[in-house]
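Section 3.1: Structural characterization of target chains.
Under the original work plan, the team committed to producing a structural model for every single-chain target entering the pipeline before any wet-lab resources were allocated. The record below documents one such target. The sequence was received from the expression subgroup and is listed exactly as submitted; it comprises 204 residues.
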Amino acid sequence: MPTLAEYIEKDTPIDEVGEFLDSLDHATRLAETQTLNRSQQRRLYDAAAQSQPLELAHFVPSDRADQTEVIHYGRNTLPLPSGLKRFEKRFCRPTDSSEQLFGYNEGATRKLIGPGYFVMHSTKDKPEWAKRGSLVVDYFQVPSSSVVSDWPKVVPNHKGLQVLVYHKTRDFMRGVSQHVSIGAAYKVEKPLGHYFILCRSDSQ
């Protein structure tokens, strides 16, 4: 059976890539997403421009209660040791019924750098942003109300070492499959040339 990397290298249409990923069990699907290098993630992000626009329910399914954690397992393309490329983006729905999600980054560097809180929202009102992805992980904003009870304290991204990673950053998201998405990082309006792939936990 071809691998995800092989599908990408062959410039397979994004709907076929999605069908392949949807056919896998969670463990295999997650393992496939963890193999992609920077070039492959960039090509996947470019291919995903043809996918259906993502909705917030991709990140927190509609049957999940407010302030309930949903984990997406990620791998980024930063110049780091392999173990530090892996991380989790954890999401929840706020209690005010607004069209947004709250979240933060969990991983080996979180206690040193900080949680990197963000607000996810639609890009539909900003045409230039919408070209990059239908949803944005916006580090210019942090949750304005309560989050999951055992999450770390909410702090703005201009404080502490977070300023080196998250401050003035936005990640634009495109869909790949029912569980998988791909993001591109921007500092203000400048593309950073780094990407990350996310795979939602199969139990969520």
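The mean pLDDT is 94.
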